[in-house]
Design brief:
Blueprint (H helix, E strand, L loop, with lengths): L7 H4 L3 H28 L18 H18 L10 H18 L17 H6 L3 H17 L15 H12 L18 E4 L16 E5 L8 H17 L5 E2 L7 E5 L8 H19 L1 H4 L3 H11 L8 H15 L5 H9 L12 H17 L9
Parallel strand pairs: 2-3
Antiparallel strand pairs: 1-4, 2-4
Amino acid sequence: MGRKRLDYPNIINREETAADLRKIYDCEFWRCEYTKRKYILDLQSRSISKNYISNIVSGSEIIDKALDYVIYHSNIVLGIVGIDIDDRTEHYDYLEKFIIAYHNFLNNKNPKYCISSSVSMSNFEECHDRLSDGQKKSLRILHSDAREYGFFPADMTIIRHLDRVEKYIDNYFKEYGAYPNFQNPFLMKDDLDPDFNYKDVDGTQYFISENSDGIYIYMKCLDEADTLSKLALHAIALINTVVKNKPMRTAGDRNDADIQICIRNKKILNDKKTLKIVLEHNFAAYRNFICPEKFCYTTDTINVAKYLIVPEYEQISFNTRASGLYIWDKVHFYGEKISKSIEKARDVAAFNLHSGIEDKAIDRYYRLAKKSVERMSVLKFSDL
């Protein structure tokens, strides 16, 4: 199910959530920064037409090749040629909406996979039919990359100045009361167990057929009076009923349900704490998708977003992550040695790597960045 971004300006005035929202924002920022570097490296094995002429010079051939690749396919989809890169912003904003429309077109409005968009493209099928074979191929490539990496390709080729970005974020928030939107997340491929299927806003159920290997639970979950905890505990009670009454496989009224819960791997049934968390997260995501005006700003939604996005236990400073990734860039994009890159990082005042911090500690910052890039995830030092 597509994620709706929290509307920071509308809820930032709630003092009890302001710190949590900054953590959520920072973690999404770093998830994209780590992911884009994995994407840029992965693009090195791909090729584009030899006739394509690039005007991109970033100082790193690796970054340039990735930019060339994304711009090449973006321009094919949009049918634009010869437009200066500074003038492309509006076109690429439209391209994001076009990729979302294509994604929703492929998934037939199923809320499990659909992504919300501010622009309706109800006639997308007709529009898609008018695309050339080359445009369709490039659109498939860009959509596939967005699904694989979780962000739009254009967002994943912009390398920011890590020594300036925190100050920019702070100043932007002071001036506008909101955080700058550096990236838009996309719906990644994911195989889930338990799995969840949903009813759309028009009442269409996208439930799968039952088989003898699974447990199927059906529930309504859009009553504002029901907390996420209450819904999850009710679901677990229904699951326990099925388990205790074999060969029974289902519980709840399928015809009247908002959500279908499918359990195939019975191991999670022995871990009720984890099961409850998974259930709460999915109830929250569905409610926020169907009725954002009711559920987006609730404490339940804020808590779920924080749990899903913010690494548990360790809160690592912005500068620690920035300096580690700065060193990673020097090593992997510019071919410098780690020791030399650490020296350069020490010269960046914003990182505050004072003489009391040993090179061994800074090398650990780099290794955290390296592993985070490899996994496209915001990791903790305990993950090393």
